[in-house]
Write a sequence for this structure.
C-alpha cells in the first residue's frame, strides 16, 4: 500500500472487517424509526390523572399495574384486590407481607402472579422494571412522578400519574391520589367517601380538643433513631433522622394541638447537639427504630426535658412494616398523639376509633392483640398516661 | 525508490511461515464479525419479557433494514417495544463501549509502543469522568456532558504527555505510565470532591454511574456514544497502517514520510473523543482498553491493519458478554465496571507472566 495513496481499494477479505461495523451502524440508525404505538381500544372510558391528562382506559377494565407504588396504599383506598394485576417484585412482596393490609387481604400476598420474582428494582434507571411491567397483562399503569409514565405513554399505553410532585401539601397529594385511583377502577365514590371521612375525623378531633381554648401547645419532635443492635451491625449507619422540610408529620403535630420542635430545620441528618438544642416536651420515635427505654437510657439524651419526664413514645404502626399514615389512618395517629399531649382534654377513644375504622373501611374486626401491636403497647406502656390506651382502661 | 510495503517492515514471526497469515486472512474477521452479531442478537433475548432468538433477530433486521416496516408484522407491539426501547439500546451501548475502548487501547499501545498503556492508565478515563460528573452537577445537557468529558479527557492526556516529557524519557516506558497514574489519581481526587459537594439526592446516581453501568440505556445515549465511536473509529481504521509505522519508532516513521507530531496528536484527540463519549454515557468501564488489545494481538499478531478491527470486535464481545452476565447472575444489576476490573486484572497478570522476557513485537 503506497504512502501517497492510503485510500487505494483494499482486498475483499479486508471488507469482512468492516461488515460488522456496518451492521452495527445500521442498527444504531434503526433506533430512529418511529416507536410502535398501541392503538386506542374500541370501547373505553376516559380517566383524568393527576396531571389533568385524559387517559383512555379499555372497557371492561382489565386491572391495574402498579409502577413503583405500594400495593398496601392501593388496597387501602380501593378495597378492591381483584383489580390488581401486577404489584411489584420480590422485595415489594416482602414489604407488603409485613404490612397490616396483608392480613386484611391475604389473597394478594398469596397470589404469585401479582409478584414478579425476575423484577429488578434498584432505583438506578427507569427501565429496570419496565420489562416486567410490559410482560404483565393489565388495563392501566399507575405511577407517581418519574420516567416510566412518559415512556409508556410514548408507545400509547394507558399510564396515569397519581401525583405530580407539585401538590401544595401532603393533604392535597393524598386527595389527588385517592381520586385518581378510585376513578381508575370505576368507583370514584370510594375516593370521595374516604376523603369525607378523613375531613370529618379531623373535625371531630378539633372539636374534642377545643383548640381555641388550649392553654399551651407542647413542643413535639418526631425523629428516627436506629437501635444499638443495628448500629453495631452496621457501624456507618446514620443513627439519627428527622423528617424536615417535606415533613408529613407537620400536619399531625399541628392537628394534635402541638408545635413542631424541629420547625425550620432543613437537614434530615442532625447531630445530637441539634436535638439537645431543640429540647422538645415530647419525643415520638419512628415505629421501626429504637424503643423508648433504649432511647432514654442513652447518656446523650439525659438532659432533654422529654427524657427527664419520660415523655418518649414510639409512633403507632407495624415495627416491620409501615406506620399509620394515609387518608384512612392519619386521623387515628393524630388522635393518638393528641391524647398523649393533651390527656386532660380528650377521652381515651383511640382504641375504639381504630376498631371502628377498620370495620367501616375494610369489614375487618381487629382483635385486642392486634390493636395492642399497632399502638406499640409493649414498648410504650411504661410511659406516663399510656395506660389510657390499654384494653381494660 | 521502490514502494515500501508494510509487509516488509512488520517484524517477522520466526515460528510461523508467511503463508499462515494468508490462510487465516478471512477466517478471523468472518468468525469475529459473525460472533459479534450473534452475541448481540442473543443478548436481546435476556430479560424479564420472554423473547425468542428468531423473533428478536427478525425485529432487529426489520429495524435496521432501510425500508418501511411490514404492515402486518409477525410480532406484537409489546415485543417490538421491548426490543426497540429497552434491549437494543443497551446491547448497542455495551457493544459500542467495548469497541471504542478496544480501539482506543490498541491505538494508544501502538502509538506509544508500550503494552502497558490503556485509556485508564494514561488518565483519559479519569479526566473524562471528572468532566462528566462536573457536567452532571451543573445539570448540563447530554451534549454538554460529552463536551466537558472530552475536554477534560483530552486535557488529562495532554498533562500525562507533558509530565512524561519532563522526565526526559519521552513517551515510552515507565515515565509515561507513572505520569498517567499521577494525573489519573489527581482527577479521581477531584471526582471525590465533586461527590462531596453534590446534593445528597444526586449522590447515589453519581456513584452508581461512576462504577460503570449501562442501566438506563436509551436512543440518546446510543447516539452519544455511537457517533463518536463509529466516526472516530472509522478515522482510526483509515490510519491503522500509519500506526504500524509509528510503532517502528519516531525516527523511522519520519523517514518514511509520516508527520509524527500531527499523527500522534490526531490519534490522541480521536482516542479522547471515543473514551469521553463512552465515559459520558456509562461511567468508568476500566481494564477493557488494556486487556483487549493483548488478546487481539495474540489472535492476529501486531499488524494494526488486522489488530485494530480485531480489538474493536473483541472489545465489543467482551463488554457485551459481561453486561449480559450482570443482568443474569444476580437480581441487582451489578455495575459492569466491577466485573471488567474483576476479570481484567487476572488476565493482565496472566499476560504479564506469560510474556515476561519477551519483546513488544513477539506476542
Amino acid at each position: 500500500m503506497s504512502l501517497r495513496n492510503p485510500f487505494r481499494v483494499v482486498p475483499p477479505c479486508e471488507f469482512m472487517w468492516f461488515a460488522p461495523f456496518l451492521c452495527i451502524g445500521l442498527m444504531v440508525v434503526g433506533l430512529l424509526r418511529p416507536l410502535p404505538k398501541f392503538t386506542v381500544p374500541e370501547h373505553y372510558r376516559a380517566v383524568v390523572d393527576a396531571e389533568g391528562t385524559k387517559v383512555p382506559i379499555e372497557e371492561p377494565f382489565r386491572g391495574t399495574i402498579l409502577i413503583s407504588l405500594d400495593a398496601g396504599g392501593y388496597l387501602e383506598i380501593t378495597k378492591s384486590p381483584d383489580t390488581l394485576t401486577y404489584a411489584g417484585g420480590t422485595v415489594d412482596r416482602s414489604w407488603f407481607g409485613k404490612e397490616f393490609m396483608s392480613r386484611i387481604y391475604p389473597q394478594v400476598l398469596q397470589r404469585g402472579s401479582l409478584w414478579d420474582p425476575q423484577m429488578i428494582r434498584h432505583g438506578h434507571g427507569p427501565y429496570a422494571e419496565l420489562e416486567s411491567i410490559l410482560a404483565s397483562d393489565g388495563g392501566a399503569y399507575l405511577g407517581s412522578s418519574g420516567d416510566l409514565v412518559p415512556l409508556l405513554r410514548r408507545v400509547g399505553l394507558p399510564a396515569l400519574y397519581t401525583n405530580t410532585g407539585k401538590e401544595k401539601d401532603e393533604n392535597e397529594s393524598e386527595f389527588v391520589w385517592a381520586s385518581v385511583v378510585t376513578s381508575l377502577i370505576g368507583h370514584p365514590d370510594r375516593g370521595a367517601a374516604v376523603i369525607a371521612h378523613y375531613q370529618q375525623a379531623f373535625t371531630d378531633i378539633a372539636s374534642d380538643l377545643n383548640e381555641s381554648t388550649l392553654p399551651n401547645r407542647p413542643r413535639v419532635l418526631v425523629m428516627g433513631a436506629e437501635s444499638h443492635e443495628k448500629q453495631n451491625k452496621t457501624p456507618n449507619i446514620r443513627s439519627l433522622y428527622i423528617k424536615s422540610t417535606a415533613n408529613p408529620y407537620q400536619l399531625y403535630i399541628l392537628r394534635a394541638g402541638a408545635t413542631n420542635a424541629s420547625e425550620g430545620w432543613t437537614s434530615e441528618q442532625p447531630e445530637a447537639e441539634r436535638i439537645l438544642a431543640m429540647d422538645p416536651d415530647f419525643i415520638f420515635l419512628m415505629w421501626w427504630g429504637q424503643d423508648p427505654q433504649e432511647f432514654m437510657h442513652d447518656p446523650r439524651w439525659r438532659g432533654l426535658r422529654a427524657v427527664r419526664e419520660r415523655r418518649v413514645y414510639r409512633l403507632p404502626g407495624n415495627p416491620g412494616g409501615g406506620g399509620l399514615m394515609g387518608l384512612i389512618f392519619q386521623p387515628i395517629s393524630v388522635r393518638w398523639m393528641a391524647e398523649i399531649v393533651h390527656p386532660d382534654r380528650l377521652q381515651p377513644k383511640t382504641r375504639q376509633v381504630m376498631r371502628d375504622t377498620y370495620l367501616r373501611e375494610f369489614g375487618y374486626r381487629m382483635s385486642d392483640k392486634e390493636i395492642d401491636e399497632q399502638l406499640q403497647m409493649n414498648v410504650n406502656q411504661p410511659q406516663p398516661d399510656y395506660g389510657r390506651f390499654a384494653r381494660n382502661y | 525508490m521502490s514502494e515500501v510495503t508494510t509487509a516488509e517492515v512488520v517484524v517477522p514471526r520466526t515460528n510461523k511461515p508467511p503463508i499462515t497469515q494468508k490462510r487465516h486472512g478471512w477466517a478471523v474477521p468472518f468468525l469475529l464479525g459473525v460472533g459479534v452479531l450473534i452475541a448481540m442478537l442473543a443478548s436481546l433475548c435476556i430479560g424479564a419479557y420472554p423473547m425468542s432468538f428468531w423473533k428478536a433477530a427478525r425485529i432487529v433486521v426489520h429495524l435496521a433494514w432501510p425500508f418501511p416496516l411490514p404492515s402486518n408484522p409477525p410480532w406484537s407491539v409489546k415485543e417490538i417495544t421491548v426490543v426497540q426501547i429497552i434491549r437494543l439500546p443497551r446491547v448497542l451501548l455495551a457493544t459500542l463501549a467495548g469497541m471504542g475502548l478496544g480501539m482506543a487501547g490498541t491505538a494508544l499501545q501502538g502509538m506509544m509502543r508500550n503494552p502497558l498503556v490503556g485509556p485508564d492508565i494514561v488518565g483519559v478515563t479519569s479526566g473524562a469522568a471528572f468532566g462528566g460528573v462536573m457536567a452532571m452537577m451543573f445539570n448540563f445537557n447530554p451534549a454538554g456532558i460529552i463536551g466537558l468529558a472530552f475536554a477534560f479527557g483530552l486535557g488529562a492526556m495532554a498533562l500525562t504527555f507533558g509530565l512524561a516529557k519532563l522526565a526526559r524519557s519521552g513517551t515510552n516506558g515507565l515515565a509515561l505510565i507513572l505520569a498517567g497514574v499521577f494525573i489519573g489519581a489527581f482527577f479521581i481526587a477531584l471526582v471525590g470532591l465533586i461527590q462531596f459537594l453534590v446534593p445528597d439526592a444526586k449522590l447515589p446516581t453519581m456513584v452508581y454511574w461512576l462504577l460503570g453501568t449501562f442501566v438506563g440505556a436509551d436512543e440518546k445515549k446510543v447516539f452519544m456514544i455511537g457517533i463518536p465511536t463509529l466516526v472516530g473509529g472509522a478515522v482510526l481504521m483509515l490510519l491503522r497502517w500509519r500506526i504500524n509505522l509509528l510503532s517502528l519508532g519516531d525516527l523511522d516513521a519520519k523517514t518514511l514520510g509520516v508527520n509524527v507530531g500531527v499523527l500522534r496528536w490526531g490519534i490522541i484527540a480521536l482516542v479522547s473523543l471515543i473514551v469521553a463519549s463512552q465515559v459520558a454515557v456509562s461511567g468508568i468501564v476500566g481494564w477493557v482498553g488494556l486487556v483487549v488489545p493483548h488478546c487481539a494481538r495474540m489472535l492476529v499478531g501486531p499488524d494494526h491493519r488486522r489488530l485494530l478491527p480485531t480489538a474493536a470486535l473483541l472489545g465489543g464481545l467482551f463488554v457485551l458478554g459481561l453486561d449480559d452476565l450482570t443482568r443474569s447472575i444476580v437480581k441487582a444489576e451489578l455495575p459492569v465496571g466491577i466485573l471488567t476490573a474483576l476479570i481484567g486484572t487476572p488476565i493482565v497478570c496472566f499476560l504479564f507472566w506469560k510474556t515476561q522476557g519477551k519483546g513488544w513485537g513477539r506476542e
